UniProtKB/TrEMBL annotation:
Similarity section: Belongs to the BshC family.
Name recorded for this polypeptide: Putative cysteine ligase BshC
NCBIfam families reported in the protein's UniProt record: thiol_BshC (TIGR03998)
Organism expressing this protein natively: Salinicoccus jeotgali
InterPro entries (UniProt xref): Bacillithiol_biosynth_BshC (IPR011199), CC_BshC (IPR055399), Rossmann-like_BshC (IPR055398)
Sequence ranges assigned to domain Bacillithiol biosynthesis BshC C-terminal coiled-coil in this UniProt record: 384-514
Stated role: Involved in bacillithiol (BSH) biosynthesis. May catalyze the last step of the pathway, the addition of cysteine to glucosamine malate (GlcN-Mal) to generate BSH.
One Pfam family cited in the UniProt record for this chain: Rossmann-like_BshC
Swiss-Prot/TrEMBL keywords: Ligase
Length: 527
């Protein structure tokens, strides 16, 4: 096994952010991944509710069986240890792979902070069970090695889930059928052969979508000490009720700060907005049934229960905090009001929207953590490694273009261009000969017949050219398929492999000590 890191084209903002550009870092309270910033964040006071939060998390994780490392990390959390946190929606059977790469990033950073700064931070993965974007998580993709193409596998693709995913009960039979299809398409992976019956048991033992996701993540990462936070947990919502109340009472200031801060951020970096929202309250209600974006109009609040006064809305919150949840603007605030965070790590878009929210943190008098871009990882097995060497292609942002260029060069080198010239010459002669045939005196009544016959012959000549091109490609079928496989497996549709494919297509890689945090693209080869 070999690990290689390489520069992968990113936008100007990401270069500036990763490079510690002063203007860019000013949108992140001038914090970066260095000793000075780490000491500054660690010196902050801990939230008074930290012990209660740790107890809630321990209770939520206990049914899955706590490992010794998880017990140790829960103890540290109770004592006020700072966390390194990242999160994601609960993808179908943990897919796509980037979800696991977020978790790996947390573990890598925990190890580095311990080694370089002598501090034992706690890794926390935030399951966004409050989200209701079912179409984003109800499917996954695998690479069909037999037919050498990408395939989409869905769980009930036509199903609409209006409530938060944390409250959605899945169909166990349909989930098992989906598992069968994924395992079948992923091939004879030793991991899957051993785990399939265990995963079926997980499907039977759990009831809700996020519970199953939790069980799967726990199975992989428990021994590494990863703590798993279910944001839709009703005990969590009770703990958050005063925080929701504070957000409601200050929603006008939050909204104004967001709009101003977003303008400043996008103008400074010449970007389009990452956050697109029309609400002015930035919370949802109705998480149990129909998740509805809360909005204020003419002094009243439009919620899932209809039009409410502010007092009625606060009473609703007091009676049923589990029905409330955050939108993209207030979720980072809630994270920092809950956790004593050292580092937050997210995808490129997440990093940008934290920058857009810098004024929101200011107006709410909340400190930001150190914000880092998560690691991006590509798995390059022995077959892909051999194909890349064979065709002289390198992994880069130009991989798809390079592969297509190689295909066109192969086709051109195997094509006899004089063949097309000769066919075109025949067509030209046909035009001349048929003109004489048609224009001869006395044949006026037969011109339509002659012209129709000419069209038949020219159509056959066009068909001949197309068939010739097809035959050329057939002689190159293996080479063209190889090049298509390179592109489709490493950068399907121009996206990084990890954003599309299910993690079971790749080895479950947990040798955290062999990875180092980087904003470069990490390539794991030879497994």
């Amino acid at each position: 096994m070999e690990i290689e890191c390489l520069n992968y084209t990113q936008d100007d903002f990401t270069h500036r952010f990763a490079g510690g550009d002063g203007q860019t870092l000013s949108f992140y309270q001038n914090l970066t991944y260095d000793e000075k910033s780490i000491k500054k964040v660690m010196d902050r006071p801990s939230h008074p509710h930290t012990g209660k939060l740790a107890d809630i998390m321990a209770e939520g994780m206990a049914p899955y069986g706590l490992s010794d490392k998880q017990e140790d990390n829960l103890r540290r959390l109770r004592e006020g240890a700072r966390v390194i946190v990242g999160g994601q929606q609960a993808g179908l059977f943990m897919g796509p792979s980037m979800i696991m790469h977020k978790m790996l990033t947390l573990l890598v950073l925990v190890e580095e902070v311990k080694k370089n700064y002598n501090y034992q931070a706690v890794p926390v993965f935030w399951i966004a069970g409050e989200d209701h974007d079912f179409e984003e998580v109800n499917h996954t993709h695998i690479y069909d090695r037999t037919h050498r193409r990408r395939r989409k596998i869905s769980y009930k693709p036509n199903l609409t889930v209006p409530m938060s995913l944390g409250f959605y009960r899945y169909d166990q039979s349909a989930m098992k059928d989906t598992l069968d299809r994924i395992v079948e398409e992923c091939g004879d992976s030793g991991y899957l052969k051993e785990k399939k019956s265990e995963i079926e048991t997980m499907i039977e033992q759990n009831e809700y979508w996020t519970e199953l996701f939790h069980a799967l993540v726990h199975d992989v990462f428990a021994d590494a000490g990863l703590l798993i936070f279910n944001s839709h947990d009703e005990a969590v919502r009770k703990l958050e009720a005063p925080m929701f109340k504070k957000m409601i009472e200050n929603h006008e200031a939050i909204d104004a700060a967001f709009r101003q801060g977003q303008r400043e951020f996008i103008e400074a970096h010449d970007l389009s907005p990452t956050i697109d929202t029309e609400t002015n309250v930035h919370l949802f209600t109705g998480s149990r049934t129909t998740r509805t974006l809360l909005d204020q109009q003419d002094g009243s609040y439009l919620a899932d229960k209809g039009t409410l006064s502010k007092d009625a809305l606060l009473e609703y919150l007091e009676q049923d905090p589990a029905s409330f949840s955050n939108n993209v603007v207030t979720r980072p605030l809630m994270q920092e009001m809950l956790f004593n965070t050292l580092i937050f790590t997210g995808g490129g878009a997440e990093v940008k929207y934290w920058g857009e929210l810098h004024k929101v943190f200011e107006v709410m008098d909340i400190d930001m953590p150190i914000v880092l871009k998560r690691m991006e990882i590509i798995h390059e097995d022995m077959r892909l490694n051999k194909l890349l060497d064979k065709y002289g292609i390198k992994v880069s942002e130009n991989l798809a273009t390079d592969s297509e260029t190689k295909k066109q060069n192969l086709i051109e080198s195997a094509t006899d261009t004089t063949f097309f010239d000769e066919v075109d010459s025949i067509a030209d002669h046909l035009d001349t000969d048929y003109s004489r045939l048609k224009d001869k005196e006395g044949r006026e009544a037969h011109r339509d017949l002659i012209e129709a016959n000419l069209k038949v012959h020219k159509k056959q000549l066009s068909y001949l050219k197309r068939r010739y091109q097809l035959e050329v490609k057939r002689t190159l079928r293996k080479e063209l398929n190889d090049l298509e496989e390179i592109s489709e497996r490493l950068m399907p549709g121009g996206s990084l492999q990890e954003r599309i494919y299910h993690p079971w297509m790749f080895p479950i890689y947990l040798e955290v000590g062999r990875l180092a945090y980087t904003t470069q693209l990490t390539i794991i080869k030879g497994i």
